[in-house]
Structure formats: C-alpha cells, structure tokens
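User: Quick sanity check before I run a bigger batch. Here is a single chain. Can you write out its predicted 3D structure?
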Amino acid sequence: FWHCTLELTEAGVKEVPLIISTVYQGIEVLRAATAAQCLKSYRELQVVTALEWEHKAREAPKVTATSLARGLHYHAPEDLLTGPILLQDYDAATCGRMLSALTKPRMAAFLTTRRDDDWRHLATTEEWYGAQYVVSDLPP
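Assistant: Done. Predicted structure follows.
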C-alpha cells in the first residue's frame, strides 16, 4: 500500500484541494521522468533509507513485535527487520505499475482536524464511538 502523510497548518487545512492537486502534480513529474532519472532517484533514496536504518532509534519491545507480526504479510521472514525500511533492487516495471495506480479515482484522503467549525453541519456521527465524520468526493 502507498500512503502520503502530511501535517498541515490551519491555513493548509483550508487548502486541502490545492494540496491534493500539488501532490498529483508531483506524481506527474515522476511519471514523466526518464528511466535514467528514475534509477538515479531510486539509488539516492536507497542511500537515505540505509542511513535511516543505521541510525534508527530503539523501539519498545511491544512496538517491535507488532511491527514484525504485521510485516509477515508483506515480507519474507529473512527480510522482516529491513523490509519496511531498506530498498532492495530497482524494478522499473514495478515502479511503472505503482505510478499508473496512483490516480485520484483510486485515492482516499483522510483529514483529521480539531477544527470542526468548517464542516460540523455536514457531519455524520459514527454509530459506536460517536465520532463525527464527513464523506465527500475529491475535487477534480
């Protein structure tokens, strides 16, 4: 699964459609890149993730166990520790398939905010926990 997490200022929360559009402009830049540019970017990302791995802070045992158990769904046992962090061999076809799947119709955007004055009148209340939420289409 692919995800993009952004932390927005109060001004950013008011500009979510523009921010989503900007993310997709970045995806279009990636789609337009040549094979050599993609490989170069991948190699640079490999270096960054290797540094991240080398300097990773220790986690609580419970967090580590949960992460390893979840990783069994996605990685071979020998790759459990490094699989979620280190990038393996570059596969142009896989990258192309991933980029072709990153489209707005396949996107779900989640906005969590403490400011509710902008949308409270549109909210539905979740049955069991009483949380309020809004479901809407993304702008074109």
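The chain has a mean pLDDT of 84.

User: Great, the batch can go ahead then.
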